[in-house]
Write a structure and sequence with these properties.
With 152 residues, the chain is α/β, with parallel strands linked by helices. The chain has five helices and five strands, in the order H-E-H-E-H-E-E-E-H-H.
């Protein structure tokens, strides 16, 4: 069984990929990887990624790194579950650069919709954190519940 990925292991994956991918390769992190780097969770079972443009060197290196680093890395993004939302790339925040690899979090709107569509408990907790964040990547403060009143 492979080990869970914490922030250091996610960065290690990016560092190793950044050594072999062509310049301008983007890796979009989704789901648990975003949650870990935002500080909402300590670790994730797998690192979901999407590369643009597609990169044979990235795919080959991911296959090798999964074994070398004992990581679960999945080629998965909201685009596998939903039609692309207009402007998703512009809304995908830059996270960091490692060598030739630019690392982004996948568009939060797309992530939220795909998590709502799937509806797992952990996904819904991530959605709650996404909605409540907007505080520079620090863990979100507990949301205050408000009563919703209907107006006629």
């Amino acid at each position: 069984m492979r080990e869970a990925a914490d922030a250091d292991r996610i960065r290690l994956l990016a560092r190793e990929l950044g050594r072999v991918v062509p310049p301008g390769t983007r890796m979009y992190l989704t789901g648990g990887a975003t949650a870990v780097l935002e500080g909402w969770r300590e670790s994730t079972v797998d690192i979901d990624v999407r590369f643009e443009p597609d990169s044979d060197s990235a795919l080959t290196k991911v296959r090798d790194l999964k074994e070398e680093l004992s990581l679960n890395v999945e080629l998965a993004s909201p685009l596998d579950f939903l039609p692309p939302l207009h402007g998703w790339q512009e809304r995908s925040p830059f996270r960091f650069r490692e060598g030739n690899l630019e690392v982004f979090d996948f568009d939060p709107y797309s992530q939220t919709l795909s998590k709502l569509e799937r509806g797992f408990t952990l996904d819904l907790e991530d959605v709650d954190n996404m909605v409540r964040s907007g505080n520079g990547g620090r863990p979100a403060q507990p949301a205050r519940r408000r009563r919703i009143t209907r107006f006629r």
